[in-house]
Amino acid sequence: MGWFSPIKGQYPSLAQIDKTLNVGAGETGITRGSLIYVDPGASPQGGEGVFRIANATQATDVTADLFVALQGQDDFVAGMAGTIGQGPATDENEVPGTARITGLSVRMPLEFQTDQYAGNLGVGDYLTVGVDGDVEGLFVAHTAGANVIAQVTAAPFERWVNDAVAVEGRRTGAAVTVIQARFVWVPKFTA
């Protein structure tokens, strides 16, 4: 589904650390709460780069610029902010049909709830980036040598989410299982 809700911290405010970029060409699977990173070499107009879903490389790269997506790439507003539904590309460097999304930096102090996690997690567990297949871009249990990006503050529990799909195409609003965590940045943690 893609749920992410800040609980405590500098959001929304001018003090938040965020970035708004296009989604990289060919990227799929970015939802609200996905872990994403800035790919600086892939900007279609030579700018700051593009967002891509985080994977095994970012789990151990201490220079990875990680964020949590505030919109899914298939969100209507993200599409209108980019070039989806806006006609053909305006020049040879622009990719038509590209969403533009905003992410919050994992290096800012913030406690949050999300359904974008995998595995059995408990209070105090450190989290990193999921590295393969179905867990890419999700919060997963930390493994030795990976970057710690968050720590669980409340074990998985159910909460009501208004935009969760209850009956496809007919009704939204349902209970969703989420974790509560806080951002913690510890590069290549081994203990």
Give a short synopsis of this structure.
The chain is mainly β and 191 residues long. The protein has helices at residues 56-60, 76-81, and strands at residues 4-9, 18-22, 35-39, 50-53, 66-69, 100-105, 110-114, 126-129, 139-141, 148-167, 171-186.
Q: How would you portray this structure in words?
A:
It is a single chain. The protein is mainly beta. It has one domain (4-186). Helices cover 6% and strands 41% of the residues. It has helices at 56-60, 76-81, and strands at 4-9, 18-22, 35-39, 50-53, 66-69, 100-105, 110-114, 126-129, 139-141, 148-167, 171-186. The strands form two sheets. A six-stranded antiparallel β-sheet has the order 1-7-11-10-8-9. A five-stranded antiparallel β-sheet has the order 2-6-5-3-4. A hairpin with a 3-residue loop joins strand 10 and strand 11. The longest helix is centred in the middle third of the chain and has 6 residues, at 76-81. It is globular. The model has no long low-confidence stretch (mean pLDDT 87).
